[in-house]
Design brief:
It is a single chain. The longest helix has 19 residues. The chain starts with a helix and ends in an 11-residue tail after the last strand. It has an eight-stranded antiparallel β-sheet with strand order 4-5-6-7-12-11-10-9. Strands 3-2-1-8 form a four-stranded mixed β-sheet. The chain is α+β, with helices and mostly antiparallel strands. It has one domain: protein yfey like fold (Sandwich). β11 and β12 form a beta hairpin.
Amino acid sequence: MTTLRTALCLPLALLLATACSDAARDDAATDTVAMTPDSLAADTGWVASPRGVGGVRAGMLRTDLLSVIGQPSRAGYYTHAECVYVGGTALPPGVQVMLIDSAVARIDVAEPGVRTREGAQVGDSAATVLQRYRGRVAVTPHNYTGPTGQYLTVTPPGDSLHRIIFETDGAVVTNYRVGRRPEVEWVEGCS
């Protein structure tokens, strides 16, 4: 029992002594923290994966979506009643959700700040995305800006339904989308 008490108290005493030291405070002020992809993605709490962003998931029903996105708003455009884009007060800037027949089909990200689990985001270089997703990316020419502009399509292992598709201008990621096929592959939103 005494050994356990000592083992628990000694680190606490050292921590308190260090925290009270002026030298420790000065050193801490100049230290930098290395940001890993995991820590970068955790900055906002809104992390993207092939299946969704934050608490928004492909396949989620509109009624469940509303509890995640806050007050809904029409975001962008829609081409027919079965397909609509919505935003929400709780969504990060630049994030829109595509609904097909009242279920989430894909999530579009058009501004920096929402990173994938691997740490990629809008504004990253195409080379960074290729490195982070090495061996899982198909590179194809962009429909409108190709061959300079490209789609970098990430296929998760063992998942034939979901994708992450980064759009680039040839050098930098301009936007990306995640979700289920075929909707995540649609070039012009609801078409």
